[in-house]
Specification:
There is one protein chain. The protein is mainly alpha-helical and 266 residues long. The protein contains 6 helices and 4 strands. The chain has 2 domains: 1-68, no CATH class; 100-265, Up-down Bundle (Four Helix Bundle (Hemerythrin (Met), subunit A)). It has helices at 79-89, 101-123, 140-159, 192-211, 215-218, 237-265; strands at residues 72-73, 76-77, 221-224, 232-236. The chain has a two-stranded antiparallel ribbon. A two-stranded antiparallel ribbon has the order 3-4. A hairpin with a 2-residue loop joins strand 1 and strand 2 (76-77). Helix 2 (101-123) packs antiparallel against helix 4 and helix 2 (101-123) runs parallel beside helix 6 (237-265). The longest helix has 29 residues, at 237-265. Residues 111-254 form the DinB-like domain. Pfam families: DinB_2 (PF12867), Pentapeptide (PF00805). InterPro entries: 5peptide_repeat, DinB-like. It comes from Actinomadura luzonensis.
């Protein structure tokens, strides 16, 4: 099998090339032109399709999950339609974009309650199943580790100002850079209780943060430019908290989806 690594092929012309079954990871296709390409069975993960135009395409039996904004299909912006339908199916979802301190407190209380139900389902499975990946996604325990990282990053570092709020079990997203001072050990196999001990601390941190939230603090911005991640200037506190809510909401849905599979297997 041919391998191509660390090569600059910018501006190359690729024609009548068979890449069936190829594995493209960290490939830069910005401003590329794809004509008469066959993507049947393709699996795109963590793909950035910003300002992408698909013309004359056939989308049949296609599944898309991710953030949709200004996505026009046959002249119709489908993003608001999808948002409305998701909120209809899950009325509590609309509470995950609050604008005031009371709304953030309500949203966090909803999430903690929902996660307790998800955790009850998980505890009914053998712990080995909670380390099992479904369709290449994070295991249940890895999901909890990632949420710990998200809370540490956006609440601990960005809002509360801790320059290095990390725990050795924290897990950044798979495509994250390898920072020197931030843990990234996907293959660790801690017990559920070990992970939950960290999770409870992080949940308490966010709970205390939104519990003491004022309108003034919510309207403020923060700047964190020291070593580590995130490194942002004048970033809204409100957006930091929205990111946490979104991470918690979406990853619980992923966990519930995978628990459906694991329950059938066990």
């Amino acid at each position: 099998m041919a391998e191509f690594r660390e090569q600059d092929l910018a501006g190359a012309r690729v024609e009548r090339v068979n890449l069936r079954g190829a594995d493209l990871t960290r490939v830069d296709l910005r401003d590329a032109t794809l004509r008469r390409v066959d993507l049947t069975g393709a699996d795109l993960r963590a793909a950035l399709l910003l300002r992408t135009r698909l013309r004359g395409v056939e989308l049949v039996d296609v599944e898309i999950s991710g953030e949709l904004r200004n996505v026009t299909v046959n002249g119709v912006d489908i993003a608001p339609l999808v948002e409305a339908e998701l909120n209809r199916r899950m009325p509590q979802r609309a509470r995950m974009r609050p604008d005031d301190p009371a709304g953030f407190r309500e949203a966090w209380a909803i999430l903690e309650r929902l996660w307790e139900g998800t955790l009850t389902r998980a505890r009914a499975l053998p712990e080995a199943a909670l380390h099992r990946s479904v369709d290449g996604e994070w295991s249940f325990i890895q999901t909890l580790r990632h949420l710990g990282f998200a809370s540490a990053a956006w609440a601990g570092r960005m809002v509360l100002g801790d320059p290095a709020p990390w725990h050795p079990l924290d897990l950044p997203w798979d495509e994250a850079p390898r920072w020197d001072d931030i843990p990234w050990e996907r293959e660790l196999r801690p017990s559920l209780e070990e992970v939950l001990a960290v999770r409870r601390e992080r949940q308490a941190m966010v709970r205390d943060l939104v519990g003491s939230l004022t309108a003034g603090r919510l309207a403020a911005t923060v700047t964190r430019t020291g070593p580590g991640w995130p490194q942002l200037e004048d970033f809204p506190v409100k957006e930091c908290l929205h990111i946490i809510l979104n991470e918690e909401w979406e990853h619980r849905l992923y966990a519930e989806r995978d628990l459906n599979v694991l329950e059938k297997e066990d």
